[in-house]
Each structure stands twice: as C-alpha cells, then as structure tokens.
Amino acid sequence: MTKICDCGNDEFIAGVKKRMPDDDLIIDMSDLFKIFGDGTRLRILIALEKEEMCVEGISKTVDMSLSAVSHQLKVLKDAKLVKGRRSGKQVYYSLCDEHIFMLLKTAEEHLREERE
Amino acid sequence: MTKICDCGNDEFIAGVKKRMPDDDLIIDMSDLFKIFGDGTRLRILIALEKEEMCVEGISKTVDMSLSAVSHQLKVLKDAKLVKGRRSGKQVYYSLCDEHIFMLLKTAEEHLREERE
DNA sequence: TAAATAGTTGAACAGTTGTTCAATTGAATA
DNA sequence: TATTCAATTGAACAACTGTTCAACTATTTA
Question: Per-residue pLDDT tens for B52-102?
Fold first, then answer.
C-alpha cells in the first residue's frame, strides 16, 4: 500500500527536470558524441592529433578510401573539429581545437582502467 | 618538383600508425561514444545522475514511452553504465560509475564555452 | 593549353538504429 | 488463485548512416 517510489509525484519529476541542462545543450552534446561514435572519424581525429596530414596521408593511416575519408573530413569540418589549409595540390588537415582532445583522453583512460 | 607532403613516404605513415592506440581500444572508445550519441540515452544518464529512479519515473522525466526507455536501459546496462535493483514491483536504476560522468561534464563544459 | 594529380561531391545502396505495438514475465495484492 | 501493476522483450518499420562509385573541380606540371 505504501508508495515507495516518488515517481508518481509530479512535483518530484518536475524537480528532476528542472535540474537537467536545457534541450539545446543536450542535443549539442549528443551531436558531438555521435561524431566521436564512428571508428573512421575517431581514427582520423587521433591521427591528426599526431601529425598534420593531407587527405591521402590520412587515408593511408586509417586504411580507408580517399573518398570515405574526404566525406568524413567534411563532417568533422562542419562540426569545427578539424580545419584544412590548401598548399599546392594538397589540403592539409589539422585539429581545430586541442581542447576537444581531453574528451578523447578521458574516454581512453576510462576504458584502459576498466580493462585490467 | 619538391615533395612537400611526407605522405608518400611509407615510413612516415608507419610511424604515425605506430603511435595510434590499438584497434580494440579505438573500437571500445567509439562504442562508448556511440552510446552517448543518442539524445534519449544521454537524457537518461543525466537524469540518473540527479536521482535514482524507477523506469516509469525515468520515462516521465525524459518524455519517452516506457518501452523506449526500457530498451535503452538495456543498452546502458549491457555497457555497464547503469545498474538496476528490484524493489517490489519496481526496478530502480542508477549510474554504475560516477567516473563516467566526467566525460559528460567535459563535453558539456566544452560546448558551453563554445557558445558565448 | 593539355594532362596529371589531389581532393570533393552527389547518388545509390546496404547496414544499422530507435521507436512503436503487442505479447509476455515477475512481483504484489485482493 | 486470479488480478493488477511495473517492466521486459521481440518483431516490424521508418529513418539515418557510412561506404562505394563515378563525375567533377582545382592546382600544378609538361
């Protein structure tokens, strides 16, 4: 008979809702994570952390076709995660923001710890 | 005539490759990010950071059907991000690991900074 | 200017994902 | 025990995603 769960109480739910970040921020967050959530893109980002590279170099490093890499670079560029600078025939890509790399490091460390 | 890009040099590529994390880790990382890359799951995680809740409570908080929430809870449970404890008719869910929450906070802060 | 090289782009396709709906399970209560 | 409530599960379906292929653009070199 006793109500254990407070979830029937609308005020309780409203209280939790109020403490959540606003919807726009949550959408932005999940969009950002979505970008990291693909192996090819993640490998491109990690590769670019090591070296600035042209598309062909990235393609060889991550073992993906030139076209596939170029498509993903566009996604990363649109998300302002990488930038390209043209030099002659090549376009050299690098990370926009080293800052974003803390995210990847944090995830990496978490998983490493989880492993042993 | 001068070769500007070092990407034609196989040793250069091999060098970058060697400095990358191994494939398994990259797959684990992208799998983790994939989970955060969905708005419903992200909202569930953020809600559970605030309060332990039963499925109906979560469902009301994130404005999704009971079934949709339950399906996503299974994904989160399989990934060891949340755990459930049964108490009577209800199952109460909470975060497995507050540690993982640093990731979300890092992303949130990054986006907040980017905004203004 | 013509050819070659580096990269981009759009359409198409297969594979994956998330939600809904209906059926089902598990626990408490009448 | 039969009923009710809370949650889970599986199938189906639509929407989305990532790769490939072919065509195209931009820059350099012959």
Answer: 999 999 999 999 999 999 999 999 999 999 999 999 999 999 999 888 888
Q: Which of residues 64-93 of B touch A (CB under 8 A)?
A: 87-88, 90, 92
Residues by CB within 7 Å of nucleic chain C, which ones? A 1, 54-56, 66-67, 70-71, 73-74, 84, 89-91; B 5, 8, 34, 37-41, 64-65, 67-68, 71-72, 75, 86, 88-89
Residue B8 contacts residue B30 (beta carbons within 8 Å): no
CB contact under 8 A, B42 and A25: no
Rounded to whole angstroms, the Cα distance separating B14 from A4 reads 60
Domain ranges of chain B: 39-115
In whole angstroms, give the CA distance from residue A38 to residue A20: 27
Element holding A46 (H helix, E strand): helix A39-50
pLDDT digits (tens), chain A, 116 positions? 344 678 889 999 999 999 999 999 999 999 999 999 999 999 999 999 999 999 999 999 999 999 999 999 999 999 999 999 999 999 999 999 888 888 898 898 888 887 77
Q: Would the pTM count as exceeding 0.90?
A: yes
The verdict on domain A39-115 having CATH code 1.10.10.10 is: yes
Query: What residue in B sits closest to A106 (Cα-Cα)?
Result: B103
